[in-house]
Design a protein that fits this description.
about 325 residues; three-stranded mixed β-sheet; alpha/beta; seven-stranded parallel β-sheet; about 40% helix; Rossmann fold; binds NADP nicotinamide-adenine-dinucleotide phosphate
Length: about 325
């Protein structure tokens, strides 16, 4: 519709932003239309979004001018960064700053920043419970996002800081699903003992973001933290067992052991899970499931997500 408000979506071809694009397109009478931002409008993913009805616009969050142009005329913008593409917290912060400043220059009425906690507020650098990484961080991809919150707050554009959760899709994307151990038994491995891990279906992040935009002023200048379910490693293992009909157990290793594993990012993930375990009460309480379900009544729990994605994992 002519007067529909435009939401510009950074990361439209990815998991978080893609969920938001689909949520907007699936609600044609909702009063919003979507502008999908990508560095490569001719990619298959971008073309698919175009075929579904999205406006596709080229911009690069390393180039502020391109983001200002892409945000112009929009009501709101969803801002995210992909740490895993460059592994640089400094670059991630600069990208966030570019988006926050572009939001101001483009005169947006609502800017949403997909963020995570700056873990150093809980575990200062001189705290030797976990190693300091890259000289300045405990969990670089968390700390950089959290440090960048201030750019959005300072922009004076009405903002929502959206605190996300561990995607269950990681079981597929990062290959951390059940594996046969030396004892021949299937297990998932987390260094969190009996502490709960808030998780979410990646697609649900975009659905929640859309509800926040739709709610007008309600969530402006606020923090919203979302999750689909809080589960211990054993509870996730039990659900794996039931869904696949094969016994899956939890391999609850210590964070130091996890950090020593031989895969890229093991140290960072070890620190991340240790932070979540040690700050379980804060980390779970802020990610309120009922409040998340109010935003997104289609919110999946882990069992529902696993049943839906059963064939994508070899167990
Ligand atoms: N996995 C988890 O459990 C989890 C949980 C919470 C938060 N996160 C965070 O989520 C982020 C990744 O999000 P995702 O899973 O949605 O990523 P994804 O599916 O890998 O997609 C990455 C998206 O970022 C866009 N992008 C990257 N660099 C860009 C640039 N310079 N300019 C414009 N667009 C750019 C890409 O667009 P084009 O390639 O089309 O340009 C693509 O749409 C990470 O920072 C991670 O820390 C992950």
């Amino acid at each position: 519709m002519e007067n529909d408000k435009i939401i510009a979506v950074v990361g439209a071809t990815g998991a978080q932003g893609g969920g938001l694009v689909r949520a907007i397109l699936n609600d044609p009478k909702g009063g919003f239309k979507v502008r999908a931002i990508t560095r490569n409008p001719s990619s298959d993913k971008a073309q698919k979004l175009k075929d579904m009805g999205a406006e596709v616009v080229k911009a690069d969050i390393d180039d502020k001018q391109s983001v200002i142009k892409a945000f112009e005329g929009a009501y709101g913008a969803y801002c995210m960064t992909n740490f895993w593409e460059h592994l640089s917290p400094e670059k991630e912060m600069q990208q966030a700053k570019n988006m926050a400043e572009a939001g101001k220059e483009a005169g947006l009425q609502h800017i949403m920043w997909s963020t995570l906690e700056d873990t150093r507020k809980w575990i200062p650098l001189d705290d030797d419970r976990m190693p300091t990484l890259m000289e300045k961080y405990k969990v670089p991809h968390f700390d950089a996002k959290g440090e960048a919150d201030e750019y959005f707050v300072e922009s004076k554009v009405p903002y929502t800081l959206l605190f996300t959760s561990f995607y269950w899709d990681n079981f597929i994307i990062f290959g951390i699903g059940p594996k046969e151990g030396e004892d021949g038994e299937l297990a998932i491995t987390f260094p969190m003992n009996n502490k709960q891990l808030p998780g979410i279906a990646a697609e649900d992040i975009g659905k929640c973001a859309y509800a926040i935009f739709k709610a007008g002023d309600t969530y402006k200048n606020k923090i919203v933290a979302i999750a689909g379910e809080h589960l211990t490693c054993k509870e996730m293992a039990d659900i794996f067992s039931e869904v696949y009909g094969k016994k899956v157990k939890c391999n609850a290793v210590e964070p130091d052991v996890y950090r020593s594993f031989d895969f890229p990012g093991a140290e960072e993930f070890g620190n991340m899970f240790q932070f979540k375990a040690e700050e379980e009460e804060y980390f779970c309480t802020i990610r309120d499931i009922n409040a998340t379900r109010k935003l997104n009544p289609e919110l999946l729990n882990f069992r529902q997500w696993l049943e839906k994605n059963k064939d994508k994992l070899e167990v």
